[in-house]
Amino acid sequence: MKRRRATTWAASSLVAALALTGTLTGPVAAAQDRAGEVATATDPVTHAENDRVPEGSVWTQSYFPSSDNSGTELHADVLLPEALAKKKKRVPVILSVGPYFGHSGQTGPENWTHTGPSNRFQDFIEGTDLFDEGYAFVMVDLRGFGGSTGCLDWGGPGEQADVKAAIDWAAKQPWSTGAVGMYGKSYDAVTGLIGNNLDQRALKAVVAQEPVWDMYQYIYSNGVPRPNVTGTANAYNSIATVDQMADDDPRYLANSRWEETHPECLTENSAGYRIADQRDKHWTSRDLARMAKGTDTPLFVTQGFIENNTKPEEMQEYLANHKGPGRGWLGQWDHVRGGDHTSDGRLAMGREGWYEETLSFYDQYLKGVEPKVDYPAYSVQDSTGTWRAQKTWPVVERSATLPLGDGSYVDDGGASARVGLAPSGEATPGPRKQPSGEWDMENAPALDPAAPKGLAKGQAKRQTAGEITSSFFVWSKPVKRAVRVTGTPQVSLTAKGTGNVMAKLYDVAPDGTAVMFDEQVSLLDSGKLTVDLKSTDWTLAAGHVLAVEIGSIQTGSWRDTPSGETIKVKNARLQLALDAPADDRPTAGARSPFLDTYLRQYTVELPPGPASFTIPSVGRH
């Protein structure tokens, strides 16, 4: 496959520089005119006429109604293969629907000198040689963003209607074969999941990188608000009201200013995020994992198990409910795309071939071309950085319900644990810090704040002395052979008291260093409680111990309100899905660079304590 160098948009920069110096004359002025041509539905524009149009394509713009009869008008930027457009040949369509396709920039002004289609997925276009391969690429603005009218409806019925309309529209155009695939990352991966859930015949395949599987989980954890509970609403309100380019066509500009005459849209959008009850209709209509039941669109996903933004929550439920062909790259990375590189040139996920495999996936399901490479259904990187091939995820050799017993803690937000650091020689830290929470789904912090140095070790020591502090620990016996914790761990308990609870899992080495690799929180009332942790794929080496911490929320990852009560926990249990690394079938891939960043952030001192449960062995004996 050919590789084009990343576009530098040099012409735009040159025109900008000359404009600032007032030296735009003669041929250069003419070049500016050519560089800024604006497409319409009937007047296509090429790269030669507007340097923001990708090479090898022609750009047009179209408008069409959403499917909910609300009067919402959606805007689409259409990029057709230039060579095939001249021959009026029909092509399959790759569709992306989202909030980041505004002509002035994805989340804010990007200093363009003239309008043109978004370059959000230029990496995908170039990496696949998309137009040479005979595909169209269509970018549709969700309601309220870019050139579309209507009120924002984050993952809700309105946006679901937009996705439905976009798929139908793309399939019925005279230049379309009627076969549509969806592509996206983060928010526009969410719309891909929505597309799958709609189960439309025209949608033949979905590629969704790092999506949110249940919209509620991005804002709350079992009733406990996250730091972005208000900030994400503010971020999307801000994106919706970004000024677009002055040379955009009048219809686009009028639509982009929708919120100016409909300020209630922003207020209503913010109000939805403040609903904490997961059972409220606002959130049940956005539970994408539940809504995926019985769907069968071929689906290719990526998910970082240790990423701090769109976390692997309800992922297993979504994949289990989806009954169609499944493909996935799953591993130990942050919020990145399959083809992303780090600043030093390493692949962010660690695996070669993202664009080739993605193109093969689309060729198979949109064109009926049999793959030339036998790709694994799931390529999975575990916590050792090693890649394996699987037919599905998770592969579970044994399920185990492990008794954790009883314990008590004070729901004080970690205050007693922090005070307890001072006698052991550690400086007493101040109140725990929280992120600002002002982020959208593309721009969250890569890491949560680390726990204070010595916190876990100090709490375990005080627990051994009989004190009740902000949490308590339970330890397993050392595992006899390597075992992998996979799928979605679950903690169940009976509590007396009201407040918050946090459950954490640690991989504890014989030297007392421990890595926190999974966590979850919940509001808590007296009675029984069951909490799903994040999905994971973590290997405990032979001789290592699994430690479970149950207690008050002690990090800045949530905006909890500690009750101050002493919570008594009875009959706590941990349910695990276990797999045997010895049975792995290796596949190509290197260690994700982010894994080492994560290990540095979340490795603490936590010497193994008295063992109270045994993790059963799995695999070959």
From TrEMBL:
Recorded coiled-coil stretches = none
**SUPFAM superfamilies in UniProt:** alpha/beta-Hydrolases (SSF53474), Galactose-binding domain-like (SSF49785)
Q: Where is this region: Disordered?
A: 40-70, 415-461
Which SMART domains did the record assign? PepX_C
- Where are the compositionally biased (Polar residues) regions? 58-70
What span is annotated as the signal peptide, if there is one?
Answer: 1-30
Q: Which Gene3D superfamilies match?
A: alpha/beta hydrolase, Galactose-binding domain-like
Q: Provide the GO MF annotations for this entry.
A: hydrolase activity
Q: Which InterPro entries match?
A: AB_hydrolase_fold, CocE/Ser_esterase, Galactose-bd-like_sf, Xaa-Pro-like_dom, Xaa-Pro_dipept_C
Alphabetical UniProt keywords: Hydrolase, Signal
User: Which segments constitute the Xaa-Pro dipeptidyl-peptidase C-terminal domain?
Assistant: 359-600
Source species, domain of life? Bacteria
Please give the name of this protein. CocE/NonD family hydrolase
Q: What taxonomic lineage is listed for the species of origin?
A: Bacteria, Bacillati, Actinomycetota, Actinomycetes, Kitasatosporales
